[in-house]
């Protein structure tokens, strides 16, 4: 069993409240719009980091982090990207990857709106952790932590912070 701290859309900003929320996690996953290479390196110094670049990320971040991450951990296939949509409204560019890779967990950021939804059609859990940073239209900053073990995704917890 591993514990995951998930965030997105930091846009170069992170604070101690989020870092404290991730104190007991084993890995941090970032679903894009990191905002600065320095922030990515800072997160890597705290916990192992899996990240993807987002649409606002510069060439340095794009060189350091891929557009899509496909991996398996604790018997769960995971697909993570920044712009992916959500059940019933996936981006057309991601549908073929969902069909061929068949993840049990699909993570996408970009919308700044926290969503945790089950997709019966693709048989997966979709998580958008919302936005942890201060830039954007959102009024609440969010992050998620959860556990993965023995093929199961469980115990999601949400952190909500005023902007």
User: How much helicity do the residues have?
Assistant: 10-25%
Low-confidence stretches at least 5 residues in length (pLDDT < 50)?
none
What's the main sheet like? 5 strands, mixed
SSE pattern? EHEHEHEEEEHEEEEE
Walk me through what this model shows.
Helices cover 20% and strands 40% of the residues. With 163 residues, it is α/β, with parallel strands linked by helices. Strands 3-2-1-11-12 form a 5-stranded mixed sheet. The chain has helices at 16-21, 37-46, 59-64, 92-101; strands at 2-7, 27-30, 49-51, 68-73, 76-81, 85-86, 89-90, 105-108, 114-119, 124-129, 140-149, 152-162. It has a single domain (2-162), classed as Purple Acid Phosphatase, chain A, domain 2. The longest helix has 10 residues, at 37-46. It has 4 helices and 12 strands, in the order βαβαβαββββαβββββ. The model has no long low-confidence stretch (mean pLDDT 97). β6 (85-86) and β7 (89-90) form a beta hairpin.
What's the structural blueprint in terms of helices and strands?
Elements: E1 2-7, H1 16-21, E2 27-30, H2 37-46, E3 49-51, H3 59-64, E4 68-73, E5 76-81, E6 85-86, E7 89-90, H4 92-101, E8 105-108, E9 114-119, E10 124-129, E11 140-149, E12 152-162
Parallel strand pairs: 1-2, 2-3, 5-8, 8-10
Antiparallel strand pairs: 1-11, 4-5, 6-7, 9-10, 11-12
Give the gist of this structure:
This protein has four helices and twelve strands; from the N terminus they run βαβαβαββββαβββββ. It is α/β, with parallel strands linked by helices and 163 residues long.
